[in-house]
Amino acid sequence: MSEKIVSTKVYIVIFIALLILTYVTYQIALIDLGWGNTIVALAIASSKALLVALYFMHVRYSSRLTWVVTAGGFFWLAIMIGFTLSDYLTRGWLTAAGGR
Amino acid sequence: MKDAVAPVLPREHYLNVNYGIRSWLLTIDHKRIALLYLVSVTFFFFLGGAFAVSFRLELLTPQGDLVQAETYNKLFSMHGIIMVWFFLVPVIPNVLGNFLVPMMIGARDLAFPRLNLASWYLFNLGGLFMLYAVLSGGVDTGWTFYTPYSSLFSNTSVVITVLGIFISGFASILTGLNFIVTIHTMRAPGMTWFRLPLFIWSHYATSLILVLATPVLAIVLLLVMAERLFHIGIFDPALGGDPLLFQHLFWFYSHPAVYIMVLPAMGVVSELIATFSRKRIFGYSAVAFASVAIAVFGFLVWGHHMFITGQSVYGSMVFSFLSYAVAVPSAIKVFNWTATLYKGSIAYDTPMLYALGFIGLFTIGGLTGLFLAALGLDVHVTDTYFVIAHFHYIMVGGTVMAYLGGIHYWWPKISGRMYPEGWAKLGALIVFVGFNLTFFPQFILGYLGMPRRYYAYPEEFQILNVMSSAGASILGVGYILPMVYLVWSMRYGPSVVANPWPATGLEWRTTSPPPTENFAQTPVVTWEAYEFMPREETEVVGKLTPADQPT
Amino acid sequence: MSDAHSVLAHHFDNLEQQREAGTLGMWIFLVTEVLFFGGLFTAYTIYRMLYPVAFADASLHLDTTLGAINTAVLICSSLTMALAVYGSQVGNRMLLILCLLLTIVLGAAFLGIKFTEYAHKFAEHLVPGSAFSYGKPELRQQAELFFSLYFAMTGLHALHMVIGVGILAVLVFQAWRGHFSPVYYAPVELTGLYWHFVDIVWIFLFPLLYLIGLHLGGASHV
Question: Is the pLDDT of residue B365 over 50?
């Protein structure tokens, strides 16, 4: 639990950074990068989310338990998406004996 | 050991501090809420059991002659739904966990008492929807709700049933949240993590699953409702959807859910084995870590329910391997319980009978799980009675027996009375015999090829089915017996001392029944878990643990 | 001025423990929300992977300008929310109330814009169901899947916004009554956590729903 009172200046800086990143993500979306579009978009979104979490949600000033809980949530989401996706992506890799 | 003078109940305790229905329905005392849950889950247990009786009657004969095929589908579906979501998932955490978690850590209540009460109301609200569905004919989709049958083609009360499960899921989430916060922030001074009873470790691990898995069930059920109501095609292959996506999301919850059902039972067993061997659990840390490992690894294996669905073979192999891995921490626990018995001072009170039964039956259930985890063998036995026998050995032979053991063990603490030991032992024996007669034949049936969810079967399977149905009737008697004598004991049972067994653990250091705030003074813990003194010392000197001072 | 003793619940030993418990509880609740929305994100991932062309094409039917404005609106609301928490921490009641009200206004603006978007989609027959129609018949089914996910994800998000606005309104009332102080401001802080989380969900929804078709060179069909 953060006892530290984050200054308004920090909030404003983060706010501006978020607006800038929003603009950037929009601009990059106009350029064709193939696969890169998705990766860049997710990277920027993750950065924005990280800024909100660390500063607006005070994770940067919170206990390790808070950090573990937050990271754990996203890690579990990654497990769900990752393992599910791995089924779809690998369906053609190995065929069952005598099967298609 | 018997007291010369009969013990007297404390003057004021949590049961008599207030009277009247409002004091129960608006209580925030975790102990009363636990009893509220006890009433609810017992009702649902017998309702689910009634469905089982119905289809076991049908299965006495090879032909489908008692009910129609569609009706039979509804019988097993409702049995599964009620037993999974309205009995097995909530029973130990919400009855024993609610009662004991604060007491075992030395706290006055859970972190969020009003959320605790809210969870009971949500549970019953979900149950009401589900009852409404039962009265309007139930569902025939199986408890697994596979799409697109459930989302498009079934003509039964899918939306109502699914809504009921959805709502009850929030009860699960609130319980898990409450337990995690309580265990992290409200342990009494000196109650470090590795002094906690293993019951707490198990419930902590269970709560991790409750919190991480249940929301996924919620969203997938929401999608099924949406598809049914708005025909959005998300799981309908004709509209570009993929039925397997449903299964991935469903089993992402439902496999960890089986660990929700068994981990608390393992926690109970740890307590019972320790007390009735008068010995610290062998390898305390290993058992504690194994609980968390089961919770974590349990999230990585869900694809083993989908081996024959067209899932990627490569993916299936990975899931198969991980399914073997998840068996390891469970095995560690079984070894450690057994090692605890070695050179222990064994007592064969009823709770211990149930605990020993658990170890044996859970081992059989767990080993047969490894059969199923093998890809090649699974192709042969999946969707047969082999699977049914496997999970009933764990759920009934495991969880239900651990629950019964726990109810008997903590009954003196909960009610201030002792149950009749003779009848209780008889009940345990009847349960054990009835259970094995019901479910062992099903391993054989499955291996011989009898499919699950069929109401008719080849003639040559009849003898095994008759044995199974006969066993079920015996099992039923074994379940009704405790209902009768436990209720009887509330009025006529002898009153007990604070610590009748005697056992270690903070819950035994307060009166039976406890006061509303659990402890007259917050305990300060300076001793390790399961520190038993030799029996002679306890009886002569009255010392329970090194911390006890003889008066 | 709130009395520190009266805000301590009977089962906690001190305010610090109560605060710690409340914060941990809210974080765990947010984790459940991650998994809850996560199910939809999983469905989105699978279907986008299976039908990239249709998803990109369907995405062009969304109004990117409105989406971008909404993103900015939510980011502003996160700032005002953070400032509201700050106000409660330093005991500045006016700042607290003002920022809570601003957050509500911005949240309402977001919902208003969303509602406008939904109305447009309805008029263009892009709401999944029997009334759905799509320009390119070969992409119709998969586009309908996209819109199912669009409405499910943004709809669920909007529902969370509505609940958030409701909670904020209660907080304004309580703040007006002088309920909060530097000693006791937990409800404001915890509501802030919830609000920022809802913002984070949108931070991911915006590029995943609105921006996936732009690079294909086709102009927005809106």
Answer: yes
Establish if B372 belongs to a structural domain.
yes
Percent of chain B surpassing pLDDT 90: 92
- Name the pTM for this structure: 0.95
In a domain, B21, yes or no: no
> Can you say whether the dihedral through the CA atoms of B198, B204, B207, B209 is positive or negative?
negative
The CA distance from B493 to B513, in Å, is 14
| Residue count of chain C | 222
B230 and C13 in contact by Cβ < 8 A?
no
How many angstroms separate the CA of residue A95 from the nearest CA in chain C? 20
Give the mean model confidence (pLDDT) for residues B301-322: 95
C190 close contact with B: CB closer than 8 A: no
| Residue of A76, A84, A89 with shortest CB distance to B248 | A84
Residues 6 or more apart whose CB falls under 8 angstroms from that of B369 comprise: B323, B327, B390, B394
Give mean pLDDT, residues B321-332.
97
Judge if A57 and A76 occupy the same domain: no
Q: Chain B residue closest to A79 (CA)? A: B300
Q: Are residues A8 and A28 in the same domain?
A: yes
Query: Any chain B CB within 8 A of the CB of C155?
Result: no
A62 chain-B contacts, CB cut-off 8 A: none
Structural domain including A99 reads 63-100
Q: Are residues A56 and A74 located together in one domain of the fold?
A: no
Specify the number of domains making up chain A.
Answer: 2
Instruction: Report residue C219's pLDDT band, with 50, 70 and 90 as the boundaries.
Output: low
Residue contact C42–A84, C-beta within 8 A: yes
d(CA B168, CA B124): 7
Mean pLDDT score across all residues of chain B: 94
The larger pLDDT score, comparing residue B367 to residue B11, is at B367
pLDDT category of residue B6 using cuts at 50, 70 and 90: low
The CATH number of residue B333's host domain is 1.20.210.10
The reported pLDDT for the residue numbered A1 is 41
Residue C85: the pLDDT is 96
How many Å apart are CA B457 and CA B476, to the nearest integer? 24
Q: Which of residues 34-73 of C touch B (CB under 8 A)?
A: 35-40, 42-43, 46-47, 50-51
Asked whether the beta carbons of residue A11 and residue C83 sit closer than 8 angstroms, the reply is: yes
Number of folded domains in chain B? 1
pLDDT at B37 exceeding the cut of 50: yes
ipTM value > 0.90 = yes
Reduce the DSSP state of residue C45 to 3 states and report it. Answer: helix
B with C: how many residue pairs have Cβ under 8 Å apart?
109
C119 touches chain A (CB under 8 A): no
Residue B538: its pLDDT value, please?
A: 57
B414 min Cα distance to partner chain C (Å): 20
Domain extent for B214: 26-541
Q: B351 vs chain C: nearest CA distance in angstroms?
A: 31
Same domain, A3 and A43: yes
Task: Give the model confidence (pLDDT) of B437-478 as tens digits.
Answer: 999 999 999 999 999 999 999 999 999 999 999 999 999 999
2.40.50.100, 3.40.1390.30, 1.20.120.80, 3.40.50.980: CATH of C15-42+64-125+144-206: 1.20.120.80
Contact residues of A toward B, CB < 8 A = 65, 73, 76, 79-80, 83-84, 86-91, 93-96
Comparing alpha-carbon positions, the chain A residue that sits nearest to C203 is: A45
Supply the DSSP string of A50-86, one letter for each residue. Answer: HHIIIIIS-GGGS-HHHHHHHHHHHHHHHHHHHHHHH
Q: In which band, very low, low, confident or very high, does the pLDDT at B551 lie, cut at 50, 70 and 90?
A: very low
- CA–CA dist C9, C45 (Å, integer): 44
Choose between B142 and A93: higher pLDDT.
Answer: B142
